[in-house]
Amino acid sequence: MYSLESTPLEVCKALAERHKLLRKKLRLSQKEMAERSGISLGSLKRFENTGKISLEALLKLAHLMGRLNDFESIFQSGDDLNEVEKLFSNK
Predict the structure, then answer these.
(1) What are phi and psi of 36, to 5 degrees?
(2) Domains observed in the chain
(3) pLDDT tens string 61-72
(4) What HEC string does the chain produce?
């Protein structure tokens, strides 16, 4: 199956690669990053190699690197949710 959009796995791997580059730019070893973020070294290594990580661990890494705000726009609706809610109310 072909698609112009990235697959979830491709997004995970690209995210892991960008994380790894930023970690190196910040001159942090994997061990140091794991200790400072509060995630296990194994989880960090798995993330950087496969792109697989829990959401909580990913957010801890983002927080340590000053990038937690990058997640604020995920799942944001462009619509006024109060107006949408009115469509489903009985009033």
Answers:
(1) -70, -30
(2) 8-68 (1.10.260.40)
(3) 999 999 999 999
(4) CCCCCCCHHHHHHHHHHHHHHHHHHCCCCHHHHHHHHCCCHHHHHHHHHHCCCCHHHHHHHHHHCCCHHHHCCCCCCCCCHHHHHHHCCCC
Summarize pLDDT for 10-22 with one digit per residue, the tens: 999 999 999 999 9
Residue 34 structure tokens: 């794991």
pTM comes to 0.78
Residue with the two structure tokens 């927080």: 63
Q: Do 33 and 57 contact (CB within 8 A), yes or no?
A: no
